[in-house]
Amino acid sequence: MTTFALAHRSLLCGLVLSMALVAQCPPPGGYPPPVPPLGGNWSPGQSSSPSSPGPAGPSAPAPAGPSAPGPEQPTTEGPTTPRGPAPASRVGPRTGGGIPISFDRGATSKDRLKVEWVHPVPPARSETETSAQGPLPWETAIPLLWDSNDQRPLLVMRECSLCKDGDEALLQRSLSNDRTLLLTKWFRCVRLPAHIAETNHPFHYVFNNLILKERWPHVFLLAHPGAEAVTFPGTQTQAQLWKGMTSVLEQRYAKDPVKALKEWLTVLDTFDTLDVRRRQLQEQLDEVRSKEGPSSARAKKLDEQIAKLNDEREATLAREAKVRDLGLLPMPRAVGSTAK
Question: Which of 70, 77, 152, 253 could form a disulfide with 188 if both were Cys (CB 3.0 to 4.6 A apart)?
Fold first, then answer.
C-alpha cells in the first residue's frame, strides 16, 4: 500500500471515530444502573424509559399521557450533523441563479423567538445531610422542576459537554426553528447542567430514570407529574419534535395548539411588516425634519402615518395575546411514578 493510501486511510478512520464519539454523548463516567421507580414493576436489565421515537415521531398520547416514541427513532449512536439555533431568518423562493433569498425577522419577532430557560436550584442540604446520600428520588425531584406560579407542562433539556451548541438537541441549524421556538412558549422550559451526570447530584435521577437505548435522552416532555415522559435523543427531526410537543400540549390546554401556532406565525409576519414600515417612515421623518423643520407639512404627514402604524401594532399585540392564551388546564394530581 502506498504512503498516500496509508495516510488517507488513517485520516478517514480518525474522522469516523471522532464523529462516533461526539454522537454517542454519554454522561461523564458512563451510566450507572437505572434506579427502579417507586411503586412500579421493574426488574434488573429492564429499560427505565419509554421506547425511542419512530420515523414519524412520538405516537399519539394515551389517556394517561403522551405515548412513548417508537423503536425506530434515530439514536445518538450514529454520526450527527451539528445543529443549533437559527430562528432569525426564513428562506424564500430561489432567484434565477438558484440562490435562496433570506428574509430576516424583525426585532419584534426575534424577541419572541427565544427559549425562556429556567435553571432550577437543588434544595439545600441540611447540616446532617451530605452529598454522599445520593440524588433525590424521581418522585421528589420532578415536582421541584415546577413552580407554584408556573404550572405549564415541562420541557427539560440537559446540557452536554460534548455538544458544540447548548441548544442543538432542541434546534436545528439547517432549518427554520420558528415553530419549535413558538411551541416552547407553552412549556416551562427547564435547563439542567451537564454535571447532573454525577451520581450524587440531587437531580441525577431526572434523566437517569429515562434511559433511552442505554443512553440518556437529551430532551424530555412531561404534561404533569403523573404523565408518561416523551423522550428525544437529540437526533430527532423537527416533525417528530413538533408532534411530541403538540401531543403534550393537548393534554394541558383547552384550545388546539396546532391551530394557534399557525395563526401566531401569521402574527409574526405582520410584526415583520410593521417593523420594516415603521423604520422606513422614521428614517424619512428624520430627514424631513432636518431639511424642512419639524412643523413642515411633510413632517406632520409622516407623524400621522407613524401614529396610524402604532395603532396597527397595538391591535396586532392584542391579537397575539389572544392567540397565545390556550387556556391552561389545572394540574392533575400525581398518582404514582412516571418513570418506566
Answer: 152
**What does DSSP say about strands 89-94 and 100-104: parallel, antiparallel, or unpaired?**
antiparallel
Q: Is it the case that residue 194 has pLDDT exceeding 50?
A: yes
Give the number of other Cβ atoms within 10 Å of residue 287's Cβ: 13
Quick one: pLDDT band at residue 26, thresholds 50, 70, 90? low
Q: C-alpha grid cell for residue 191?
A: 435547563
Residue 243 has phi, psi (to 5 degrees) of -65, -45
Cell of 314: 397595538
CA 283 vs. chain centroid, Å, equals 37
* Residue closest to 85 by CA, chosen among 160, 159, 167: 167
pTM: 0.69
Give the whole-angstrom CA distance, residue 155 versus residue 245.
9
| Distance of alpha carbon 169 from alpha carbon 64, whole angstroms | 26
DSSP label at residue 284: H
The CA R_g of the chain, rounded to the nearest whole Å, is 25
Asked if residues 146 and 309 have their Cβ atoms less than 8 Å apart, the reply is: no
Domain boundaries, the chain: 48-254, 258-324
Give the cell for residue 77.
Answer: 449512536
Return d(Cα 72, Cα 61) in angstroms, integer. Answer: 18
In tens, the pLDDT along 90-112 reads 544 433 443 333 358 999 999 99
Task: Answer whether 232's CB lies under 8 Å from 244's CB.
Answer: yes
- Contact call for residues 87 and 105 (beta carbons, < 8 A): yes
What pLDDT was estimated at residue 164?
57
Helix, strand, coil fractions of the chain, as percent rounded to 5: 40, 10, 50
